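Q&A log
Question type: sequence-to-structure
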Amino acid sequence: MLIKLRLDIPIEEIKNLDRIIELEIKDSVGRSRIDIDKDEKNYHIDIESPDVTSFKAAVSSITRWLIIIKRIEGVN
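Response status: OK
Response body:
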C-alpha cells in the first residue's frame, strides 16, 4: 500500500524552505520519497511511503525541520 501526502505551505510562512531542507533530505527519508517544489505562492512537499511506519518517520522528519526553520527565522 502506497501512502501519499501533499503539504502546501505559503512561501511567506517559511523563507528559503527549498534550499534549507533539500540539503538534508536528498529525495528520500528511509523508505519514503520526499519531493519539494514551489510556485509563485506555495511550497509543495510531496511524501510517498510504502507503509505506515515509514510514513510516520517521514512526516516526523519534515515536521521537525519545519519547526526548526520557523524558530530560526523568529530569531532574525
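Response note: The mean pLDDT is 84.
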